[in-house]
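Case study B.
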Amino acid sequence: MEKIAVLTSGGDSPGMNACIRAVVRTALYYNMDVYGIERGYEGLINGDITRLNHRSVSDIIHKGGTFLKTSRCPEFKDLEVQKRGTYALSAYGIEGLVVIGGDGTFRGAKSLSDNFGIKVMGIPGTIDNDLAYTDYTLGFDTTVNTVLWAINNLRDTMHSHDRVSLLEVMGRNAGDIALYAGIAGGAEYILVPEVPYDLDEIASSIKKSNLRGKTSNTIVLAEGAGDREEIVQKIKEKTGINVKVTVLGYIQRGGSPNMADRVLAAKFAIKAVDLLKNGGESSAIGIKDNKIVAVPFEKAFNEKKVFDKDLFESARILGL
Ligand code: ADP
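Model:
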């Protein structure tokens, strides 16, 4: 394979730029031509394709976001629209594609591969860590550290005022961001979509701890785990204690990728380009037990993510 292209799609995550850089530099090392497609699948169907060289990816390794930009492009689910995308690839003679994104992006990749014979490698770029076939997704580690920074800062002020703090974090239907940041930040309560919780119990536990002299508590709420206003209301009703709410929002999507994500970006990119160069099957790239793996896309969608209940349980024990 002599010509490949790279795009980023869906929600951005820290480390996407480092990964694009690594794809480009690896391809150039193998004397392949490499192209950047802007705004994910939207750019593919519009033919927004540019040749990249070593300098195109200078000085981006440390930047959050994606310099190729990203988009949601719902019409790409339509086979006719995908076909238009493949015309753009043929016009440039591009035979292989690296897509960096989440499971939606992978569905588009699988369809391009199954229906139009394009070799596509998928790199899991999402902060949510919600794909079962890989232990970690690109950007998750940086995001958890950003959330941890927020918990540390909240602790300072909550402790000074004897307050209960509720921090809502991202993760869509997955609780990993809340779990890892919560346990690392010493949160007393971690509320995730994967584990049911009882608000009456939480309220009475806060009340009891208050009587024992514990005057501040931190609750980390994953966005998919319930309505924050309802939680605050219930705790106030049952305990008389005011809960201060912080919604971290998009702050946790941006920021310079940390060491773990930059190294992961390099490993994922090298594997993806190696597979394209050597005629490998279209695959989702991941990391399992510290080894870089490539699995069929179906496995990436169909395997159900197992939530780490043991880690969750230890967080409960440690937060008492
Ligand atoms: P993520 O990749 O982060 O999960 P989305 O779910 O928004 O984000 O998916 C990103 C893009 O992938 C969508 O905007 C769309 O262009 C494409 N996509 C999603 N689902 C499919 C599908 N079933 N078939 C083809 N393309 C899809």
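The chain has a mean pLDDT of 96. The remaining cases will be described in the next quarterly update.
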